Amino acid sequence: MEVKRVKQILSSSADIEVQYNGASVWIDNLNEDGQTATAHLRGPLEERTTVDIAELEEK
């Protein structure tokens, strides 16, 4: 996924499905390096992880 699209998703109020390695995730923020983002799985777990935005896929 491109940086521009990550920023659009973060600023949108819509529920946009994004997947990381086949799992549905919420993007929490774009990191300062512009190449990674902090995300967590959709659902009750709030464990956050840093992911490469190139591996994020919009569904």
Automatic annotation (TrEMBL):
Its main location: other. Keywords: Sporulation. Induction: Expressed only in the forespore compartment of sporulating cells. Pfam families: SspH. InterPro entries: SASP_SspH. The keyword Transmembrane does not apply. GO terms for cellular component: endospore-forming forespore. GO terms for biological process: asexual sporulation; sporulation resulting in formation of a cellular spore. It is found in: Spore core. Belongs to the SspH family. This is Small, acid-soluble spore protein H. It comes from Robertmurraya kyonggiensis.
